[in-house]
Design brief:
Elements: E1 3-9, H1 13-24, E2 30-32, E3 46-47, E4 57-58, H2 59-72, E5 76-78, E6 82-86, E7 92-96, E8 100-109, E9 113-115, E10 131-132, H3 135-138, E11 146-150, H4 154-163, E12 169-174, H5 183-190, E13 195-199, E14 201-209, E15 212-220, E16 226-230, E17 233-236, E18 240-242, E19 273-275, H6 287-306
Parallel strand pairs: 1-2, 1-8, 2-5, 8-19, 10-17, 11-12, 11-17, 12-13
Antiparallel strand pairs: 3-4, 6-7, 7-8, 9-18, 14-15, 15-16
Helix pairs in contact: 1-2, 1-6, 4-5
Length: 318
């Protein structure tokens, strides 16, 4: 039986940080890379808000450096997707690519959350080159430029309001006449003079020239006419989907699908299973906060394997 002390699922900032700490603790973790090795940062160009890089660093370079650091201390990486798990007894079973089985005394889940995309022509090709899913990450690069934000919920209002710190103009596009956002978030956006509105319009294509976004083509849902909203950036803010389907309900999750952890540590509802990064954080979703939770998860896992970690799910109040 292919058994390890620790298996880590996911290789974004959280998973790779957890791997570094677990490897330095001589746990020789097996890290399952997932279908997006390096996580969403591999789709990002320059990162300027990760501490330690005064001139910034490219997203793929940061992830590669973290991976090499983990490998240096003995972490083993396996390309593949965790398609199912059995958490009913130890050792936990992790099935990779539906066929390969691995076992672990403790498990860290850092499978992240995927940004929901529009699924329209030109969107994927321009991701990281004018199309973004994170205003906090990329807003700085659009100083004094026109931006379009797609969405009608709280996230879209928050992203649009934040982007007015940089952009000359922000246009919110929503496919309905009414927003889903809370009234306070709507009022905040409506009261911002930099924000314009295109309601009851459906995005149909991201337009680019010379590898740079030039606008978003939209269709009027009433008349059927189309037009191009000129913009150098398109921010998609229609939500995130945590990657937890493979757990099949064996770990407690919230109504959206994010893993619920103990507020005092990274323990999940299953003893010996820990979670970190965007798969359990619907609020911050930053590389540095994900890395911090990866550190915590690995330290919790180490204490658990030593027998000194107290799993008290009653402390969550659930």
């Amino acid at each position: 039986m292919n058994e390890r002390q620790a298996i880590i699922l996911g290789t974004g900032p959280a998973g790779l940080t957890a791997a570094i700490y677990a490897a330095r603790a001589n746990l020789n973790p097996l890290v399952i890379e997932g279908n997006e090795p390096g996580g969403q940062l591999t789709l990002t160009t320059e990162i300027e808000n990760f501490p330690g890089f005064p001139e910034g660093i490219m997203g793929p370079d940061l992830m590669e450096n973290m991976r090499k650091q983990a490998e240096r201390f003995g972490a083993e990486f396996l390309f593949g997707i965790a398609t199912s798990v059995d958490l009913t007894h130890r050792p936990f079973r992790v099935t990779v690519n539906e066929t390969d089985e691995f076992y672990a005394q403790a498990l860290i889940i850092s499978t992240g959350a995927s940004a929901k995309m529009l699924g329209i022509p030109g969107e994927t090709e321009a991701l990281g080159h004018g199309v973004s899913t994170c205003a906090t990450c990329d807003g700085f690069f659009f100083r004094d430029k026109k931006i379009v934000v797609v969405g009608g919920g709280d996230s879209a209002m928050e992203e649009a309001t934040f982007l007015t710190k940089f952009a000359s103009e922000v246009t919110i596009v929503h496919r309905r006449n009414a927003l889903r956002a809370s009234k306070v978030m709507q009022d905040r956006a409506h009261n911002n003079p930099k924000i314009k509105w295109v309601m009851n319009h459906t995005p149909i294509a991201v337009k680019s020239e010379d590898n740079h976004v030039v606008g978003l083509e939209v269709r009027d849902n009433e008349s059927g006419t189309t037009r191009l909203l000129e913009a150098e950036g398109v921010f998609v803010a229609i939500g995130h989907q945590p990657n937890t389907a493979f757990l099949n309900g064996q770990v407690e999750i919230d109504k959206v699908g994010y893993i619920i952890t103990n507020p005092y540590n990274t323990a999940t509802s299953v003893e010996g299973v820990f979670a970190c990064g965007d798969v359990m954080d619907s609020r911050y979703r930053q590389a540095i906060t994900a890395a911090g939770t990866g550190c915590r998860a690995s330290m919790d896992l180490e204490k658990y394997l030593e027998g000194s970690f107290v799993h008290d799910w009653s402390m969550t109040g659930r």
